[in-house]
Amino acid sequence: MVGPKRQLLPLLLLSLSALFFYSYYHSSLTLHADSNPNFNFNLRSQIPSHHPNFNFTFILKVLAFNRHDSLARCLRSLAAADYLSDRVHLHVYIDHFDHGGNGSATNADQKLDESHRMLELVDGFDWKFGEKLVHYRTRNVGLQAQWLEAWWPSSDHEFAFVVEDDLEVSPLYYKFLRSLIVNYYYNASNYRPYIYGASLQRPRFVPGKHGNKIQLENGTRIFLYQLVGTWGQLLFPKQWKEFRLWYDIHKAKEIKPFLEGMVTTGWYKKLGERIWTPWFIKFIHSRGYFNFYTSFSHERALSISHRDAGVNYGKTAGPDSHLLGKNSLDYGSLEMQPLSNLKWYDFCFREILPERVVRSFDELGPVLKTVQKQETVIFVSLYEVLEMVTKNLLCNFERLNIGNFILIGTESEILFDLARRGHPVIVEDNFLKSLRTYKVDQQDSNAQLTNRILVKAHVVKKCLEYGYSCWVVDGNMLPVGSYPYFKSDPIYDYYIGKSSELFFAKSSSSAKKIWIDRLISNVAEMVDSLLNQKKSASFVHIMAKLLEQKGVMIKSIDETIVGVNIGSGKVKQSSLGGEQNIVFWSGEMGFDLIQKRLEELGIWMLDKDLSCKAVVCHQ
Ligand SMILES: *[C@@H]1O[C@H](CO)[C@@H](O)[C@H](O)[C@H]1NC(C)=O
Ligand SMILES: *[C@@H]1O[C@H](CO)[C@@H](O)[C@H](O)[C@H]1NC(C)=O
Ligand SMILES: *[C@@H]1O[C@H](CO)[C@@H](O)[C@H](O)[C@H]1NC(C)=O
Ligand SMILES: *[C@@H]1O[C@H](CO)[C@@H](O)[C@H](O)[C@H]1NC(C)=O
Question: What InterPro entries does the record point to (predicted)?
Answer without folding.
Answer: Nucleotide-diphossugar_trans
